Amino acid sequence: MRILIVEDEVRIADFLQRGLRAEGHFCVVANDGEQGLSLALDGDFDLLLLDLMLPGIHGHEVCQQLRINKINTPLIILSAMDSLDDVVAGLRMGADDYMTKPFSFEELLARIETVMRRSSATAIQEQILKIGPLAFDRQSLRFSVGGRNIKMTAKELAIIELLMSHPGTLFSRERILSNVWGLNMDPLTNVVDVYIGKLRKKIDGEFDNSLIETVRGLGYRLHIESQTDESC
Ligand code: CA
Predict the structure, then answer these.
(1) Domains of the chain, with CATH numbers?
(2) pLDDT < 70 regions, the chain
(3) Distance from Cα 56 to the centre of ligand 1, integer Å
(4) Gap between the Cα atoms of 168 and 182, Å rounded
(5) Residue 26 Cα to ligand 1 middle (Å)
(6) How many A from CA of 53 to the centre of ligand 1?
(7) Is the pTM here over 0.85, yes or no?
């Protein structure tokens, strides 16, 4: 899954990120409310983990703004504010669950499972993404082209998963950057182009045209309709 962690305490953000990565998830961290809201509104995450006491915008406001903007990504609040009033307020603002700090990682995993089970059936259907010859198993993180397994790095997988979840949709470099690297990257970096180049080398193989189309000056999109391998 793609998880957005909105947390200003670096130690906690690192702890969450390390643990969730070990479970096979891909994480992006936002260190304040504004970044968190902006990334979550951009909207390609399967789950949000949200602290409340954040610099910039308070977590309640982030939560409320997301729901007002019809972003229904499952959301779990992780907060040191532990009174009943705080919990009730968080749930009323649209959170799916509320955990008080400190929490055990095992419990967080169990709560994530519950929240994801309750959320839309599409999340379950999409455990294996298949677009033309490309297949990505989000659970085992196996990626294949025409049935052939391809070794990928975490960042390469994150980009291809993003493109595969919205085939045909144009992704600007900025959008890929914020979804895969977070917002702390220099917007002028060419890292996205470098990674698209690496991906093409790995996946294009026998295809005449690249499966990842460049739209000059605008960005990239997955374009595979005419070259779909019939065997998959
Ligand atoms: Ca905080």
Answers:
(1) 2-123 (3.40.50.2300), 128-231 (1.10.10.10)
(2) 43, 120-126, 183, 225-232
(3) 11
(4) 23
(5) 22
(6) 4
(7) no
